[in-house]
UniProtKB/TrEMBL annotation:
Quaternary structure (record): Tetramer of two alpha and two beta subunits.
Reactions catalysed according to its record: tRNA(Phe) + L-phenylalanine + ATP = L-phenylalanyl-tRNA(Phe) + AMP + diphosphate + H(+)
GO biological process assignments: phenylalanyl-tRNA aminoacylation
Lineage: unclassified sequences, metagenomes, ecological metagenomes
Keyword Oxidoreductase: no
Cofactors named for this entry: Mg(2+)
SUPFAM superfamilies per the UniProt record, alphabetical: Class II aaRS and biotin synthetases, PheT/TilS domain, Putative DNA-binding domain
Protein name as it appears in the record: Phenylalanine--tRNA ligase beta subunit
Length: 261
């Protein structure tokens, strides 16, 4: 695994040949590039009816290393879609074993050993949830027993301790819950399982006062209505368009090209 080098090219499984640079991760040996990391394999890795040996490779890719890469080449893949949003890094070997079992079941053969290399995995830091804070945010009374039941149903491991504001839950997110990072994430989980329909809708309590208005000044809303009444239409154009669109529809023979579209 390494970053690509400017000028390198790779023919992909979809038949496209793409030019790489230092912003794209690749899987390569000392002879050639095998695939775009976390996006698509190279054409040289294709399986045919004459294939007799298969090498299975599975990996965890950091979302930041995959996000936006496939769109640079004007295509998207299921792998890129998943890795961009985060996947469970703790089940890679389990997936390799499952794929191997399917190949043996359907095609036969003999499986080799699994070589598991672990480098720079995410660290799941504990997240603290104050019961008093959850009550203030949701506007309802919550007992520690209710919150504990929610975390048990979600299979979120937790510990309980006493803090300055009362009881505190310390939750260690599992590897597949990469969306739990701050206290509000846990409050959202509690509300979701507790039931949004059980949370009463209470109007906010605030002073209602009449503020003075400048009668000599027309509001944007009034101006828009006046212009629309005279058969004008408001048009919101695309900020960025294809180069040929700019030439065809705007008669602009020298459009400005974006460095990072």
């Amino acid at each position: 695994m390494r970053w690509g080098r400017k000028g390198e090219q790779l023919k992909l499984l979809n038949g496209n040949t793409v030019e790489l640079d230092e912003q794209v991760g690749v899987i390569a040996d000392d002879k050639e590039i095998e695939s775009l990391a976390g996006i698509m394999g190279g054409d040289s890795t294709a399986v045919t009816l004459d294939t007799t040996n298969i090498y299975l490779e599975a990996a965890f890719w950091w979302p930041e290393a995959i996000q936006g890469r496939s769109r640079r080449f004007n295509f998207s893949t299921d792998a890129g879609h998943r890795f961009e949003r985060g996947v469970d890094y703790a089940t890679t070997v389990e997936h390799i074993e499952r794929i191997s079992a399917l190949i043996l079941e359907i095609c036969g053969g003999q499986a080799g050993p699994v070589d598991d290399q672990i480098v720079n995995l995410p660290q799941r830091k504990p997240v603290r949830l104050r019961v008093s804070r959850a009550e203030r945010v949701l506007g309802i009374e919550l007992s520690p027993a209710v919150i504990a039941d929610v975390f048990q149903r979600l299979q979120l491991p937790f510990a309980r301790e006493q803090g300055d504001d009362g009881e505190v839950f310390v939750v260690t997110p599992p590897s597949y819950r990469f969306d739990i990072e701050i206290e509000e994430d846990l409050i959202e989980e509690v509300a979701r399982i507790y039931g949004f329909e059980r949370i009463p809708a209470r109007p906010p309590i605030a002073e209602s006062e009449m503020r003075p208005t400048d009668e000599a000044r027309r509001s944007t809303h009034a101006v828009r209505h006046a212009i629309a009444a005279r058969d004008y239409q408001e048009v919101i154009n695309f900020a960025f368009v294809e180069e040929k669109w700019e030439r065809d529809f705007a008669s602009n023979d020298n459009p400005i090209r974006l460095l990072n579209p």
